[in-house]
Amino acid sequence: MSLIKVLNFKPLGDDRGDLVALEELVDIPFAMKRVYYVFRTERGVSRGFHAHKNLKQVAVCVTGSCDFLLDDGTTRETITLDSSTKGILIEGIVWREMHNFSDDCVLMVIASEHYDESDYIRNYDNFLKIANKN
Ligand code: T46
């Protein structure tokens, strides 16, 4: 089974253009508590490099593209997010890194919990210990 769970969102387009609607427990498989977006990432900069203890997230590039690497301690997989109708679900103890941001990239993330720094695992060796226990 792939580590990367792709979610395809229905474009509600008409002759004026496109629209995507994301509804809790319909398109997003959890109760939504927070939305944030990453933009104007400097060329060559990578982000992430952490896992979470208890957080579900859906990530979508609403404009532009970036590469998302997910690592469960055993397998590493990368997906290019390059469509406003394609997201990924990130859940469980998974290390994530984001690379190759396009200049115009706006990466939107919907999260199941409010921001909590104590939920982050920022050290890769600690991540491996926790991931390999599960
Ligand atoms: C994740 C990946 C995909 C807040 O104050 N509130 C927030 O909700 C967030 C997400 C961040 N912050 C602060 C914490 C840092 O001072 O914003 C600053 C940048 O956050 P961070 O370095 O964690 O950003 P990324 O892009 O490395 O990681 C983010 C999320 O933090 C993380 O949960 O899964 O995007």
TrEMBL record:
Annotated ranges, domain Sugar 3,4-ketoisomerase QdtA cupin: 5-131
Pfam families: FdtA
Domain of life of the source: Bacteria
Stored InterPro entries: QdtA_cupin_dom, RmlC-like_jellyroll, RmlC_Cupin_sf
This protein's name: FdtA/QdtA family cupin domain-containing protein
